[in-house]
Hints:
- The structure holds two protein chains of two kinds.
- Helix content of chain A is 34%, strand content 29%.
- By secondary structure, chain A is α/β, with parallel strands linked by helices.
- Among the domains of chain A are: 5-46 and 97-169 and 262-337, FAD/NAD(P)-binding domain (3-Layer(bba) Sandwich); 338-394, no CATH class.
- In chain B, the strands form two sheets. In chain B, strands 1-4 form a two-stranded antiparallel ribbon. A two-stranded antiparallel sheet of chain B has the order 2-3.
- In chain B, a hairpin with a 4-residue loop joins strand 2 (23-25) and strand 3.
- Flavin-adenine dinucleotide is lined by residues 11-17, 34-37, 45-50, 119-120, 152-156, 177, 179, 219, 255-257, 275-277, 281, 286-290, 292, 395 of chain A.
Amino acid sequence: xxxxxxxxxxxxxxxxxSVTARYAAENxxxxxxxxxxxxxxxxxxxxxxxxxxxxAPFIDIDQRWIASRIETAKLTxxxxxxxxxxxxxxxxxxxxxLFDNALAELACRNGAQLLTKANATGLVWKNxxxxxxxxxxxxxxxxVLCDLVIGADGVESRVGRWAGIKTDVALKDIDTCVxxxxxxxxxxxxxxxxxxxxxxxxxxxxWIFPKSEDTANVGIGxxxxxxxxxxxxxxxxxxxxxHFPKGKITCRVYGGVTTAKTLKxxxxxxxxxxxxxxxxxxxxxxxxxxxxxxxxxxxxxIAAEAVKREDFSSQFLKKYRKEWDxxxxxxxxTMYSMKEKVINMSNDRFNRLVKVCQGIPRxxxxxxxxxxEAVKGDPKLILDIAKAFVVxxxx
Amino acid sequence: MIINRDLCDICGSCVAVCxxxxxxxxxxxxxxxxxxxxxxxxxxxxxxxxxIKEGN
Lengths: 395, 56
Ligand SMILES: Cc1cc2nc3c(=O)[nH]c(=O)nc-3n(C[C@H](O)[C@H](O)[C@H](O)COP(=O)(O)OP(=O)(O)OC[C@H]3O[C@@H](n4cnc5c(N)ncnc54)[C@H](O)[C@@H]3O)c2cc1C
Ligand code: SF4
Ligand code: SF4
């Protein structure tokens, strides 16, 4: 049964909504999650790549939601030359639908309630205070009261806007993406691939994330400010035509990934934003799952603390912001500066970067070695190398 | 702005860039409120499938 009042209402049951709900409920808050779709995790709008270290603190790894285990990354330069990056820890290509469901189940097991087919449409205000959420459920208009609203409503977030928080991003701070899930193609199951180049993917990259020996998510993200009439589909179709002329497409998705800094404001009285809604995505890689879950673990605990203290003021909730900046927010700012450089990187630099990587034998591959080699050959490449590594490690 | 609903994938990218909060989104459809829109055209540029055109 859904009650009429909760301590906390979370809007959205993506990874960040579910993790926030779980930590808040586990620490004593009564929590309701509203999800507008029929179940968590659909439609999947994601390349599904994560690092083991990014998600392991928040959920026990379960083979049921893992499609493939990743050990290497391969970079391909505009001139067609490739290099492998070894020794960088394990990653996974997920089954996001099952992963998101597992996280929602974890939230529910820890005491949260989930209501699907519940589309939040606005906030309830009382005496100028946010005191609940308006939503529609199975064709009916409803309201639920709460002390704290958490907007975990993804890239399309409107919750912040309802509270008067500025959430829109600049065109250069969002990648416009298309992805095909393809079958009957030949891929290396333990390797994720990235293709760079101004003619291949302006200001972004093409990815191939394998789900088995003959299936993969093949997608592209191009920087919003470089997306002319052509758009990402034009570039992806070209790529697929060249690399997988015989492959078949079983799923097409379109989407946006922000490559911004975290919003200036992610809390106000009685409200917090997490995940894509707060723009807590790695700006260099577009990876938002692990980052969002990390932010959610902080937000959920602080939400529960706020409930215990009965203090929902932005003053108190700012603890979440502080903790986020210390753990990942400041790193995100560094990534953002790198992104600003990388979107303007020339084909020639990408070519040279891959060449340096090629020069290092597999068993000697390490970031340190790469730096040493780079210094010998082309000192200016160091920064670019750091970027390339980060692409792999943080996705 | 006119949205071609046969093309739109309800991905929300346009909502993320709209400076005027002129775009509403549900699980079934995206709606641009002409009276709120300030014609900045950001949504047209970001849309991955080019489902938005100028006009009303
Ligand atoms: C093409 C593409 C590829 C990507 N690849 C990767 C990748 O490989 N690795 C990675 O880490 N990240 C990737 N990302 C980013 C990643 O998908 C997001 O960062 C991640 O899903 C964010 O999680 P979230 O919980 O914040 O939001 P979401 O997962 O978007 O969840 C938001 C939820 O809120 C619900 N919702 C929205 N509005 C309302 C409302 N009004 N009422 C009720 N419910 C609502 C939605 O239905 C949804 O379930 C990719 C994104 C795209 C578009
Ligand atoms: S033109 Fe600008 S203001 Fe109008 S809907 Fe598109 S993004 Fe919003
Ligand atoms: S960006 Fe395009 S496809 Fe995505 S929701 Fe807006 S109109 Fe639809």
